[in-house]
Write a structure and sequence with these properties.
Elements (H helix, E strand, L loop, with lengths): L1 E5 L3 E7 L4 H4 L1 E6 L1 H15 L6 E5 L12 H19 L3 E4 L9 H7 L9 H15 L5 H11 L2
Parallel strand pairs: 1-4, 4-5
Antiparallel strand pairs: 1-2, 2-3
Length: about 150
């Protein structure tokens, strides 16, 4: 199970089995960093309790723009909670630069059936991180995803 996370006050999740990304893809959005930490364990264990999840989390950067919101605290607390959870459960954990998701545009996600509208679009951001991570790291059926995108001209 590969799980991508867009952390924040509202957190986006996207997950799939990389060997069947179209058949197993799902996404969600959760409010509150503590709820998000609980949701991660629920997603990973409910979908495949015998296999360790691989977690990819957008790295939250504190900037002059983000410092003015509540996002820095929630994002950093959540990142710490997720890292601790992964360490405790033996799950691989990696950060991904937030700008990586920009390649995975809404039309690309839509053609894959990976675009579910949510209140704050954090689930779509997590979906973009998931797609980019699979392609960048040649994980699972990434080539079939690229073929679908290319055929659609997305």
């Amino acid at each position: 199970m590969l799980v991508a996370i867009d952390p924040g006050v509202t957190t986006g999740f996207a997950w799939c089995d990389p060997t069947d990304p179209l058949g197993t893809f799902n996404s969600a959005e959760v409010s509150g960093w503590m709820n998000a930490a609980k949701e991660l364990q629920s997603i990973a264990i409910q979908n495949d309790p015998t296999y360790p999840a691989h977690i990819v989390c957008e790295r939250f950067d504190i900037t002059m723009q983000t410092i003015r919101t509540h996002a820095p605290k929630a994002s950093l607390w959540l990142e710490g909670a997720i890292q601790l959870q992964c360490e405790t459960l033996g799950w691989p954990f990696e950060f991904q630069d937030k700008h990586k998701r920009k390649w995975a545009t809404r039309p690309k996600l839509e053609v894959l059936g990976w675009l579910f509208e949510t209140k704050d679009d954090h689930a779509a951001d997590a979906s973009a991180h998931l797609l980019v991570y699979m392609i960048d790291n040649h994980i699972g059926e990434y080539q079939s995803l690229l073929e679908i995108i290319a055929e659609a001209g997305a």
